[in-house]
Design brief:
This protein is mainly β and 119 residues long. The chain contains no helices and eleven strands. Helices cover 0% and strands 60% of the residues. Strands 2, 4, 5, 6, 9, 10 and 11 form a seven-stranded mixed β-sheet that branches.
């Protein structure tokens, strides 16, 4: 069964860094495009960053200059490098991937990984 598996979350002090990973597992699927979203306590899920199949990136204003999204097609993995973390970055981070399986493309979500920034 194809799924997206996130890792890399944890507890970090304000000003610190974390790198989140999102890897395709469980089948023969390739990731075309991907994105990271987050949901803080009591908040709606919001877009953090996306990367297109051609490598174009897009960021929420709140993370521009601090977060970098990238993709390693050989490893079927999308990354989110987070630097200069702030308290307000605390959230569950979800990976979304556009996966090509055979002749079709499907949207998958990961299970989420918690990022907690302490001041």
């Amino acid at each position: 069964q194809v799924q997206l598996v996130e890792s890399g979350g944890g507890l970090v002090q304000a000003g610190g860094s974390l790198r989140l990973s999102c890897v395709v597992s469980g089948g023969t699927a390739s990731i075309n495009a991907g994105g990271w979203y987050r949901q803080g306590s009591g908040s709606q899920r919001e877009l953090v960053a996306t990367i297109s199949s051609k490598g174009s990136t897009n960021y929420a204003d709140s993370v521009k200059g601090r977060f970098t999204i990238s993709r390693d097609s050989a490893k079927n993995t999308v990354y989110l490098q987070m630097m200069s973390l702030k308290d307000e970055d605390t959230a569950v981070y979800y990976c979304n991937g556009e996966l090509k399986i055979g002749a079709y493309t499907y949207s998958y979500w990961g299970q989420g990984t918690q990022v907690t920034v302490s001041s």
